[in-house]
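cron nightly-structures :: item 1 of 1
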Amino acid sequence: MTEIERYLILIEGGPPANYSAWSPDVPGCVATGSTIDMCIEEMRVALAGHIEVMREHSEPTPEPSGPGIYLERAIAA
């Protein structure tokens, strides 16, 4: 059975510029894409490669922090 690791990513930016993604669990691992879906796919590839290199260098693999949650805040009119 394959174990699946789920890493939190944060996506910023967007039109008129590219979207960018990073993970608080894996410092230094970033990706960009012209759409959110493309950015997510590029980040998926970046995380896999980043973690593979860490393992090749016998570095500890970061533990996933878990799911993120959006908090809503009322804005006075």
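cron nightly-structures :: done
The two ends are 53 Å apart (CA to CA).
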